[in-house]
Amino acid sequence: MRKTEFIDREGNAIDMIQAEFAMKIDDLVGDARRIAITGHTRPDGDCTGACLGLRRYLLDLDPSLTVDVYLEPVPAAYDMLEGFETVCLYTEGEYELCFVLDVSSRERLGKNATLLDHVSRVVCIDHHATSEGLGGQDFVVPEAAAACELLYDIMNKEHISLETAECLYLGIIHDTNVFKNSNTTRHTMEVAGALMAKGVNQTRIINDSFYVKTYLQNQLLGMALMKSLIFCDGRCIVSVISRKTMDFYQATHADLDGIVEQLRVTKGVECAIFLTELQFRQYKVSMRSNEAVDVSQVAAYFGGGGHVRAAGCTMEGSFYDVVNNLSEQIVKQLDEE
Ligand code: AMP
Ligand code: MN
Ligand code: MN
User: Fold this and answer.
1) What whole-number distance in Å separates Cα of residue 108 and Cα of residue 272?
2) Ligand 1 atom with least separation from CA of 47
3) Whose CA is nearest to atom 4 of ligand 1?
4) N or C: which end of the chain has fewer CB within 10 A?
């Protein structure tokens, strides 16, 4: 039995993962020749970096493999990643193996879920504490800051090219908010350091994929901040962008990146909620918390999931219904404090 060692925040070596997870990507591929890779709906940096990083890694391992990445439209901010232009939505094709990254529920695969019906074997690599797995080979390690960190751990380090390293680095900075979220461990930093040693231009990736905003993104951010409401004595904040606004500005979901994070850093706020109206009486809910609230519990209560400090779900009803229902669950936790 091979073991993979991780290092906790205090620097102690810990074995966080099951023996079976100590398998390496190279073994997981086996004799598959046609491989598909997919991730969750509205792909973020971690999901995109993981999918494209694994694609490049597998093609470097054996250029004769077929490796196709299926994702919903990827934000243009990640266009520096190798293989960005190859990503498409799944329509048809048979594969021997499908990697499902940064997600482990069929529902969160959106339209790409049908891919699973045309594949012989599914390997899921994820780090969401609320994950239930897909019933194939499921490797879920909630302690990992990002799916990209987890992928690095099971890749053969010698075979990681600069292009793969850039993908994984981008994923890690997005899920840790540039190494400042509480999910960032010593191990996360060590992985990032090892990726830098591959030649990753971290300044360019951090600026271009994370901090640079389009004029439209800044306008929407300003609008969301202006319209935000605080409640629970200033411990919670909520804002919303309506369908009408999205349509008027021809905005996509990626144009709203970073809004909930800005709400979270409002002084005194424990829990930030950002709602995006998907359609009439249906909202995508994004939550972030500082210390007092486990938002993954709140999201899971409403059928979603995520992490302790960042989670989400989809809810039905008017804006006020949704906020009332969410705040009831949040207040329960604040009262227990
Ligand atoms: P977001 O607010 O969309 O950035 O999502 C924050 C975290 O919660 C991410 O790790 C997501 O993968 C997770 N998440 C968001 N929406 C859902 C959902 N409907 N079901 C499960 N997990 C979700
Ligand atoms: Mn993600
Ligand atoms: Mn992730």
Assistant:
1) 22
2) 12
3) 286
4) N
Instruction: Decide whether any atom of ligand 1 lies within 6 Å of the 171 Cβ.
Output: no
Q: Does 126 share its domain with 18?
A: yes
CATH classification at residue 36: 3.90.1640.10
DSSP string, 58-106: HHHH-TTSEEEEE-SPPPGGGTTSTTGGG-B---S--EEEEEEES---G
In the predicted structure, residue 10 carries a pLDDT above the cut 70 = no
The answer on 220 and 160 residing in a single domain is: no
Domain boundary among 190, 211, 232: 211
Question: Rounded to an integer, what distance in angstroms lies between the CA atom of residue 48 and that of residue 64?
Answer: 23
The parent domain of residue 59 ranges over 4-211
d(CA 306, CA 119): 26
Domain count, the chain: 2
Nearest to 45 by CA among 140, 139, 181, 160: 181
Query: Based on the domain organization, do 138 and 223 belong to the same domain?
Result: no
207-256 pLDDT, tens digit each = 999 999 999 999 999 999 999 999 999 999 999 999 999 999 999 999 99
| pTM, to two decimals | 0.90
